[in-house]
Amino acid sequence: MITAAVPEREDYLNVSHGLKSWLLTKDHKRIGLLYLATITLFFFLGGVFATVIRIELLTPGGGLVSSETYNKLFTMHGVTMIFFFLLPSIPAVFGNFFLPMMIGARDLAFPRINLLSWYLLVVGGLFALFAMLAGGVDTGWTFYTPYSTTYSNTWVIATALGIFVAGFSSILTGLNFIVTIHRMRAPGMTWFRMPLFVWAHYATALIQVLGTPVLAVTIVLVFCERVFHIGIFDPALGGDPVLFQHLFWFYSHPAVYIMILPAMGVVSELVSTFSRKAIFGYRIVAFSSVAIAVLGFLVWGHHMFVSGQSLFAGMAFSFLSYFVAIPSAIKVFNWTATLYKGSISYATPMLYAFGFIGLFTMGGLTGLFVAALGIDVHVTDTYFVVAHFHYIMVGGAIMGYMGGLHYWWPKMTGRMYPEGWAKLSALVIFLGFNLTFFPQFILGYLGMPRRYHTYPAEFQILHVLSTAGASVLAVGYAIPMIYFAWSLRYGKVAGANPWGATGLEWKTASPPPLHNFDKIPVVTHDAYDYSTVVGEAVEVG
Amino acid sequence: MGLLRLFPVQASTFAPDVDHLLYFLLAVAVFFSLAIFCSIFYFAIRYRRRSENELPRAIHGGMALEILWSVIPFGLTMVMFTWGASIYFNESRPPDNALDVYVVGKQWMWKLEHLGGQREINELHIPVGRAVRLTMTSEDAIHSFFVPAFRTKQDAVPGRYTTTWFKPTKAGKYHLFCAEYCGTNHSRMGGWVYVMAPRDYEAWLSGGASGGSLAENGQKLFDELACGNCHKPDGSGRCPSLSGLFGKTVQLAGGATVKADEGYIRESILQPQAKIVAGYGPIMPTFQGLVTEEGVMQLIEYIKSLGPPPGAPAGGIAAR
Lengths: 541, 320
Fold this sequence. Notes:
heterodimer, A: mainly alpha, 16 helices, B: alpha+beta, five-stranded mixed sheet
């Protein structure tokens, strides 16, 4: 179990003991840790699926598993990683733990609803796990109709219900964040004194609350058609299969921003802390998060350029998609400019921030390729798209998540992780990631379709490279699991503010007391004012 | 070949267009990536932390820079949009003289039929230098007709027609894939497109001759289903005449109009109540389940082949 750094002092970890004190906790910090444990399990599960997929693709003819099994593997990889790891990851773990602390609150606005959110994720996850153990599901995480409603003979309903229930976890978390940010800020914590992590989570919460219900409705419609044969999507029953794609992407494109916006929030904190500079263009970075959230709702049709939607719709969605590129680019430019004349530390969280910026830049720039109609017709449903979204979701969201985990680990546990091992694993992850996914851009442009169990022999070299990279990546993810566990007992005791960061979460003990602050802080400075934390400062720049 | 290819072969008129846009995007991407990576490397080394107590002077931003790095990328993205959209526009506008081929996707094969009645499965034989228009649908899940060498892809959607076209520029044998996940044997749902010299193509056509052209078979089906009992050529039947119908604008009950294309005729056979021609009653029964997707395609070709009835005024001219 986690042992507190200074046993005499009471903190949120040692204030009570026993399973019941965790399963019935209303403390946002403990709930954050419950989420951390839950999504780590799902990340491991999704990783196992990915491993089998990559091993199978070493040879063009298949052979390790049957096509039925292969199709289930990539479906369950996607379902697990997206709905039960990436969507909850940063908001549910770090948002839960740190959003109230960053604005100087004692908890979220609705602590009981917060606990309910975690139970909903667990129940949804159990549905999905049941489906996987009972025989799996083979529709792809996209559940396209009429395949999913009429032709698939797998556990579609159980999986979809799991996603439906987990969706309410996401909605309630978003609702909790919005109310907390509006109502629970400490005295002096004005909107433009909030850390950019909080701004990013506000924007994320808007998508969670406004987008997720559409997914829920879509799942209900799939249920009605599959179980009661009410014609909604299957043309044989009088339905429209493309309607499903509109509904699905109306949620699932903004859902990409549920995954990436919180990571952008983390990166803003890291870049500022480890260069000891205010974020260049703070307000613009804050507004760009909201702009991404709003514009993200207007671009869903760019997933459907070859679906048979009209020429005009294709052009409109391509045009609008380019608008969402601008606020993303602005963030990258502003992070880079923040480094200028800073005092730059190479601590592990900053290495992850560098990694995020590099990989997100490549993911974002290849997004310009797939938004271009003429190119997308060729590359959609190929490995080019697979590479593109893994650069965003793994290169972006997971790098941000790992950066945040290292950054806040001392605050959450009171212990430091071993810096040398952490730097090594950050490097291994970066290299392994690129070796896994860069060859997939080339594969995709050459015409290798996604979701293929077997493939023409000419694609084998690139697949072997990709699998080699995945092995390196697996090692990179395994190392932190070991040293984080090790650090709980043997890690150096962390002080209240080991990084010299400005956020309010660093102005209280590590680990924090049950109610976060002994006294509610009064905020008198902007978010990133380092003159308040550097004692006997040596002015540079 | 043992060599590692980085780009697919170019075998249609679209391929160089798409590749040129790709080169432009690559240039932009490499430029911005390098600009970002080099700046980060330079700043990270130049401004590395030398003592624990360093306090850099805060810089809160600069509106001129913000505008600069918003406007320039926006301009570039509008070039990408316009360029990409112009290719897409061309891909949706087949030339009038295009060779028609009908495609039906089903789990897990492609069934193709030429106007002359030649049928193929998972293979498509076409002449080099001639535009080919595909009209496609699916019998079950959604499939997607993808020929990387042509840079074209189009979903085949059950319940409707979608179309695409291409003009092959180089004889050869090219991969045909299904690109939309469609179940167990999705990765085996494919084959080859054979682009042939015109003389070889003519030889292939005559070698693959079958029991009658699409239109001829359509006429047989038309008679078998007794369509002519109501759709009389001179318009005296209980249903509208089909002579010279194809390509015309049809006046519907309720005031709307619709162009009589393949999709409209398909819908009128399978869901006759969807659009009622002005002046006629909703009396036609559905032929869903009585006629296959291939049968519908034959009927469409037969209707296309019907010229205007003798003595009809100009304007009712069939498309071919």
